[in-house]
Amino acid sequence: MALKENIQTLLAQVGEMKATSAEELESLRIKYLSKKGEITALFNEFRTVPGDQKRELGQMLNQLRQQAESRINELKEQFEAKQAEADKLDLTRTPDPIALGTRHPLSMVREEIEDIFSRIGFTIAQGPEVEDDKHVYGMLNFAPEHPARDMQDTFFIEKEKGVQKPTDVLLRSHTSSVQTRVMTSQKPPIRVLCPGRVYRNEAISARAHCFFHQVEGLYIDKHVSFADLREALLYFSKEMFGSETKIRLRPSYFPFTEPSAEMDISCNICGGKGCSFCKGTGWVEILGCGMVDPNVLEACGIDSKEYSGYAFGMGVERITNLKYRVKDLRLFSENDVRFLRQFESC
Ligand code: PHE
Question: How far is the C-alpha of 199 from the C-alpha of 275, rounded, in Å?
């Protein structure tokens, strides 16, 4: 009778057999079915059972063994299925590409300009975008009635709400304001590059915007000459647009430089032969420059008899257009990813 109870206890145990790993399952198999296992032991015991009980207990024992085996096989199959699923994961496979953002083309070009000039000793100077009249115009030799101060050109910060009139506080219209700040706070020699955003009151179109970006440069020392300016600009043009690039300086006018010039480079799109970009001339204008007017040096507290200097200023959008042929200025500020993605590999 004891055998019968043992069989029933084991039957109940076998029905509830659980394993969380292949190792656990193997130890269950050993526990019940191996040579020294509990079920095998019952078979040994069965030999001593009186003949009249053999039939019933024999059937029960066989049933117990079968149930144990099939439960173990069932669990084994579950583990194998899990393993097969895990084997499908190829950990050496190249991962799906993660979409990375791109650097903005204007930032890339600005950094390239900074890099080129830093190699000949220029350091970066920055200043505020909200400025006063003195730093943007006054100290730069603009006459009080100069048209640049007109409200068509300059954004003034309203003092009285809703009243638009020239005030002392304005959005800088060029980064020359940073140069006046550097000249009044540092002693020569000065060699700075002033990158930054500037604002002008223009109607937004493909060719004009109410803000854009400039990089201006200033070098003040003893005996700085126009030849030094020309040499620095030729170096820059070749580094930026290729060693074949030629430059041409045309006389111009700016209140803060004397003499002043505008610089053209040989059109890098047609190589100077003439195309629609350069309107058939073979040249494109890229910057304004000149020798710092002695009035400006004096206004900033620098002795114009001892020191001279040159300055130049360029629009980053213009340089970017030349490099990447962007036809519409608005693309730079709309943040359309279809446009920005085109610069992924640059
Ligand atoms: N400040 C001028 C502009 O905004 C550019 C310039 C800078 C010209 C320095 C000459 C010298 O157009």
Answer: 31
